[in-house]
Amino acid sequence: MDNWNEIRTAAHVARLGTISAASAELGVHRITVTRHIDALESLLGAKLFQRHARGFTPTELGLELLRIADATDAQFGELYRLARGASDKIDGTVVITALDVLIPFILPMIAQVQNEHPGLNVNLVSSDRVLKLEYGEAALAFRIGAKPDHPDNVVIPALTIDMGLYASPQYIEIHGRPHHQDTFKAHRFVGPDDTAPRPLYFDWLEAHVPSNCIHLRCNNVVSTFEAAKAGLGIGFLPKHTAEALGCVQIMEPEPLWQETVWAVTHMDLHRSSKVQAVLSAVRS
Questions:
Q1: What domains, with CATH codes, occur in the chain?
Q2: How much of the chain is in helix, strand and coil states, percent to nearest 5?
């Protein structure tokens, strides 16, 4: 049973016939599936599959592994049902990490989870440093930007943030509103410095606004949001935040300005009751 992850992976390949199908079913990278099969065959000293152009066909040993794995999985399922019958409570502490900019979007999910599971405590780590799930620094991470691709992580889309270019009422009162990109050079903008993260909307800003018009530069995204909200310049804000503050949209948003937030868990913790409780709020 020390090799249950490898056994389970090999059983999926035997059942589905390809690395790609097993990878999608398990929610892990293809490399992880291949590594598990290689490790298990090395341990057993025998081949579990015949490789061919159409995929993987289990050998006689591979079919026997599938039979044993299915039986074991069924026994685990029975054990789980017995445990759930004894107690449906989800309690204790789960560590969640997210960048500062994501906290306003994460808190409603946490509130939903804790309303459903009052005994569940959350340690929310807000940090610009990306905590390493593989080292157990957190059970679940919310990340933004390109889809994380660590082979041992399970990644699902959590939400989409609609971003836009806005000016606060204070800014409009003092400086007026630009009605076309040609008038940007007469206005003040808020943007990133060279060390700040670079979402695509910041790339757009650098490409379309003269550098000397970006009068305030910040080393993180949250600070640019706060500066735009305070009227220091025109800047990017999440749509729901800007609308709640009565900010004025300067132009129609570009499709690439949308930000996808990813919920990321390590495959070893993905099925834990605490993590699944949080993910249920993500999916709802």
A1: 4-86 (1.10.10.10), 92-157+260-283 (3.40.190.10), 163-257 (3.40.190.10)
A2: 50, 25, 30
What is the distance between the alpha carbons of residues 123 and 94, in angstroms, rounded to a whole number?
Answer: 6
Predicted structure pTM score = 0.63
Helix (H, G, I), strand (E, B) or coil at 156: strand
β pairing state of 163-167 and 248-249: antiparallel
Closest CA to 238 of 219, 220, 222: 222
Q: Cα(82)–Cα(21) distance, rounded to whole angstroms?
A: 31
Residue 108 CB contacts under 8 Å (≥ 6 apart), including other chains: none
Beta partners for residue 122, in sequence order: 94
Asked whether 10 and 37 are in contact (CB, 8 A), the reply is yes
pLDDT in tens, 178-205: 988 999 999 999 999 998 888 899 999 9
pLDDT (tens digit per residue) in 74-121: 677 666 655 554 445 688 888 999 988 899 899 999 999 999 999 899
Write the DSSP string, 95-113.
EEEE-GGGHHHHHHHHHHH
CA–CA separation, 106 vs 96, rounded Å?
A: 10
Position 3, amino acid: N
Q: Which residues of 29-40 are buried (b: 16+ CB within 10 A; e: fewer)?
A: beebbbbbbeeb
CA atoms of 251 and 246, how far apart (whole Å) = 15
Distance CA 215, CA 234 (A): 10
In angstroms, the CA 168 to CA 230 distance is 7
Are 91 and 274 in contact, with CB atoms under 8 Å apart? no
| Burial tier of 3 (Cβ tally within 10 Å: 0-12, 13-18, 19+) | middle
**Which amino acid is located at 69 in the chain?**
A
> 3-class DSSP state for residue 53?
coil
